[in-house]
Design goal:
Elements: E1 6-10, E2 13-17, H1 34-60, H2 66-73, H3 77-104, H4 108-130, H5 134-148, H6 152-162, H7 165-196, H8 200-219, H9 232-276, H10 284-309, H11 313-337, H12 341-367, H13 372-403, H14 405-426
Antiparallel strand pairs: 1-2
């Protein structure tokens, strides 16, 4: 029996897209009033927000201790970078599988084991650091990547299952803000923990995993599936049909999200390297606070954007184009001002604002573009490409930095401008998207 579908104006043409989260889960009572409903949503929002927060802490919190890792384990700079890169690449490759599993079974049945694997492998990595075994550390980090694959991307799909309309946009904005907030606090937190003992960050995020796990288990109530999920072959055919029908705007959306995070992590790598060199010589916790400035701008903008767009297609189109325009201009101006630290940080903060305008809009459109039964895979493809952007940002920026500083910002501003053109001409949401 087919599910009832509603016509929605999306990306410049009418498309049959199901209402997200319109049905009440079985056994779930309606709230007696708006206050109770709002209170329930707040706790759900917090529980969902812990998932991307934990994901980011598990990676970025290790960045400040990489120099100590090199000296304590007697490894090269390239080997220490693999502690981050292997995690991200593994997660990027496994995410589509996690997406399929969440569509086939349920979101929580993927998120809960993933958090357990993620936290347990973190403990193993910590003991590898204590035993000064680089092999154990990288194996544990690879296992963590497998666990990470079933966290943030599936949480995004779960938001689409639970909410609709403005509530969904707000929840997705908070999810993106939580992701950014993790990026803000993780370098600072990692540096502070390392003051106690250098390998402390390895053991810290399993604690955060446990808190997130408890929140997911006891706070989030997942809607029941109304239909039997299709077999793998039929499922792949459905995903292929979606990409064929909506690929004109979905593929540019995937590219835009991946590029935004490629630029974000790349410029932060550049700024981190710049701060440690003369004449600045800024490192440790102080460097973490400086790196947090552009990230904080992105976090505040992401949350505000998610709260304001309310699935208004016309507004989302404006904000995406304005965001990419801001990124293009600020990165282009960095070609001339990268030697002036104050102006440079200001320009990177503007780029962070542009990213904060772009990502919540992309998240909202992508999660609302498909039925619940295929949402996990579509959001997983998107998240996988975002992970790839994160993984390749620092090494590609390092390669460009060896050529010249100007090449770095000529390249990224040009990429942002090309993406602006793709978004302007191919992604055209209109009207109110229910």
């Amino acid at each position: 029996m087919e599910k009832t579908k509603s016509k929605k104006l999306l990306i410049g043409f009418e498309s049959d897209i199901p209402d997200s989260g319109t049905k009440e889960p079985k056994g779930q009572k309606k709230a007696s009033g708006k206050a109770d409903q709002a209170k329930g949503h707040i706790w759900e929002f917090i529980a969902i927000a812990t998932i991307p927060m934990v994901l980011v802490l598990g990676n970025s919190m290790l960045v400040p201790i990489l120099p100590q890792l090199q000296s304590q384990l007697g490894i090269s700079r390239f080997q220490s970078s693999l502690v981050i890169t292997l995690f991200s690449i593994t997660a990027g490759l496994i995410i589509p599988i996690s997406g399929y599993m969440s569509d086939r079974f349920s979101r929580k049945s993927v998120i809960i084991p993933s958090l357990i694997v993620y936290g347990a492998a973190g403990v193993l990595a910590g003991f590898g650091a204590i035993w000064k075994s680089y092999t154990i550390v990288v194996i544990a980090r690879t296992i963590q990547g497998i666990g990470a694959a079933g966290t943030a991307s599936i949480a995004m799909a779960l938001v689409g299952d639970l909410y609709k309309g403005a509530t969904e946009s707000k929840a997705l904005g908070l999810t993106e803000a939580s992701n950014g907030a993790g990026k803000v606090v993780s370098p600072i937190l990692g540096s502070l923990l390392a003051l106690w003992v250098w390998f402390a960050p390895f053991f810290a995020f399993p604690v955060f995993c446990l808190l997130s796990l408890l929140a997911v288990i006891f706070i989030l109530k997942e809607p029941k599936k109304s239909n039997e999920p299709p077999k793998l072959r039929a499922y792949i055919q459905q995903i292929g049909s979606i990409l064929k029908e909506k690929g004109k705007w979905l593929i540019p959306s995937f590219f835009a999200g991946s590029l935004a995070l490629f630029i974000l992590f790349g410029v932060l790598f550049y700024l981190s390297d710049t701060l440690e060199k003369p004449p600045y010589n800024i490192d440790g916790v102080k460097k973490g606070f400086v790196l947090a400035i552009p990230l904080l701008c992105m976090v505040a903008t992401s949350y505000t954007t998610g709260a304001l767009i309310k699935k208004n297609g016309t507004l989302m189109r404006w904000l995406m184009n304005i965001g990419l325009g801001i990124m293009t201009v600020s990165l282009a101006l960095s070609i001339f001002f990268f030697n002036n630290l104050y102006i440079f940080i200001g320009l990177l903060s503007l780029s962070g604002i542009g990213t904060g305008l772009l990502l919540p809009c992309l998240n909202t459109m992508i999660t609302g573009s498909v039925e619940r039964e295929q949402r996990g895979m579509i959001t997983s493809i998107y998240s996988s490409l975002r992970f790839i952007g994160v993984a390749f940002g620092p090494p590609i920026f390092e390669w460009m930095m060896k050529i010249s500083n100007q090449i770095v910002f000529i390249t990224v501003s040009s990429l942002a401008f090309i993406t602006l053109g793709l978004v302007f001409f191919l992604i055209k949401p209109k009207g109110k998207i229910a």
